[in-house]
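ok trying again, last paste got cut off:
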Amino acid sequence: MSIDTTRTLGARSGLEISTAGLGAWAMGGGDWGFAWGPQDDADSVATVHAAVGAGVNWIDTAAAYGLGHSEEVIGKALAALPAGDRPYLFTKTGLVWDDPADRTAPPRKVMTPAAVRRELEESLRRLGTDHVDLYQVHWPGDGKLLTWGTEGTDEAVGATPLEEYWQTMADLRQEGKVRAIGLCNHSVEELERAAAVAHIDAIQPQFSALTRLTADEIRWAEEHGTGVIVYQPMHSGLLTGTFDAARVAALPANDWRRTHPDFTTHLAPNLRVADALRAVAERRGTTVAAVAVAWALAWPGVTGAIVGARRPGQIAGWAPGADLVLTDADLDGIAAAITASGAGTGPARP
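nice, full thing came through this time. structure:
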């Protein structure tokens, strides 16, 4: 199948994007601290080509994924495509390793102007392009180590005020090195501060039927002409209908999901929500993954969803979700399961 639905990313970017984009986190490989286990580069290249063939017209990556390896693989994949077939490139800045040789250590959230400009030049080189279509701040530049999913106790080193790093991003947009700029994982209060400096083209919050705390950020974006691309709508695989305790136990030792609370202590309620998505999928003649994607896209203000894939064959599982419109009955049933299970926090229904 081919994705037919597109939406405009915010009021000013000029980017018309498919409602599903390819996420390239796992393409960073298996030898760094937030890896998804081993990943074959040839599979990654083939997956990029399959996604483009299925109508996906944007890829989301980051300099941090595999310490640049994801961008290198994407650059290789795009070089093999005719110029007219190449998708938009979205990447991110702001995660820097204290010691790049220690790839299993957590990165630090660094957003100094010099670091941002250096990272952009390195990303352009790896991607094999002269501009990025959407350049995003990965996390607030507070100078702390990224302890995603765990509690951090480190001291901030070299924090950069939001207004300063957002001005740097706006300058890059003005210089033409990036077409649009965005903020990932920033609160409503932080979005307000950034918007006072320069228009925010897009935000990227984590959002799925299991993670709904960013509904306020999505509402803010809709009210301010800002696009929204949500990440992990399938919640790192939990909402694909393929997970159970046995599969979690079988994950590779270097897969971050193996020890994350969502896959351990919170697994049972999370799987109850996945079961509700399965009921919708069976009724609508589609996949659980497609329903998970469609659920995120049903929220007012959401422009597109970032969906990961590690092999070409996985795309067929979620691509139908880009065009699927859930009914009120579908949404009511999912909301009831969310409420009954106690999974996640936030509104259960758009």
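cool. The CA atoms of residues 277 and 329 lie 12 Å apart. The first strand starts at residue 6 and ends at 8.
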